[in-house]
Design a protein that fits this description.
about 35% helix, about 280 residues, alpha/beta, 11 strands, 6-stranded mixed beta sheet, single chain, globular
């Protein structure tokens, strides 16, 4: 039997990454193959339907997979995650010269966010503002940039458009991943010293390799063991790790998804059984 994994093709480099991983895993003796998807929703549905054994899931895809499984009396587990997937934060930015001094000052103003299904640039920062006492769409206007819907924020185009709207004066705040705040500064999207952080989310975890309960146990365990054994010092695998944005794989954990669970419920994105309930979401 071959262990079959799904991955979402959010960027052309996805082919290079998983073709390289496939060659390396097979050279270690693991019968492994992968299938690419255009969006996470179908990938998650195929995982639960038994057409996949594992899925390289976004945090939002993990939430849905877990809810779908629980609704059927089944379970999925987080096998591994990247070292860079742990303890991330999102930030709500405003311009340095803005009169906005606290989240409360956003009342009756416009907040720019990423795509509807972006955890880091929409769901999580809006949940952070909810916890500050503000109701999205009621206490403040939400201007969304739906770039790459279905990719769960892996395409950062929506975040770039959000900060551009902020700089253009079309919004009083913009929501981005903290690491992208730094990236946008380095690449020149944001001018040096042009913005400041108005609010920051609690830490959360990002992607996880999700394994279904129907996966062959021996192959799944070997898959996890081999990924964890990858060394950044190995010249054969280092380029692949660089492309995938990690220096080491770590054991999967689920404790870092509580904030996203609350955000999903607050936004009405999925119901408790994992059904898509976001009215204007078309992956």
């Amino acid at each position: 039997m071959t262990l079959l994994m799904g991955a979402v093709a959010y960027d052309p480099k996805t082919v290079t990454i998983w073709t390289g991983f496939r060659a390396w895993l097979r050279a270690q003796g693991l019968p492994f193959d992968y299938v690419l998807y255009s969006h996470y929703e179908r990938q998650v549905e195929d995982l639960l339907a038994g057409r996949l054994h594992a899925a390289w899931n976004s945090p939002l895809a993990w939430v849905r997979a877990d809810r779908l499984a629980r609704a059927e009396g089944r379970e999925v587990r987080a096998l591994v995650m990247r070292d860079t997937d742990r303890d991330l934060t999102s930030v709500v930015l405003t311009r340095q010269d803005s009169p906005v001094a606290s989240p409360a000052d956003l009342k009756e103003r416009t907040v720019a966010v990423g795509a509807v299904d972006s955890p880091q640039a929409t769901l999580l920062p809006l949940e952070t503002l909810r916890r500050a006492g503000l109701r999205p769409g009621e206490d403040f206007r939400v201007r969304r940039f739906d770039v790459g819907t279905g990719l769960h924020g892996d395409h950062v185009g929506g975040e770039r458009e959000a900060v551009r709207a902020l700089l253009a004066g079309e919004a009083e705040a913009a929501c981005v991943l903290d690491a992208n705040h730094l990236l946008f500064g380095r690449e020149g999207t944001l001018p040096p010293g042009g913005t400041r952080v108005l609010a920051q989310s609690e830490p959360y975890d990002h992607c996880t390799m999700t394994v279904a309960d129907g996966a062959p146990a021996d192959l799944a365990e070997e898959f996890g063991r081999l990924l964890l054994s990858m060394s950044y010092a190995d010249p054969e695998v280092r380029p692949l790790l660089d492309l995938e944005g990690l220096t080491a794989w770590r054991p999967g954990r689920t404790t870092g998804y509580a904030l996203l669970e609350a955000a999903v419920d607050g936004a009405g994105f999925y119901d408790a059984a994992g059904r898509i309930t976001a009215a204007d979401y078309l992956p």
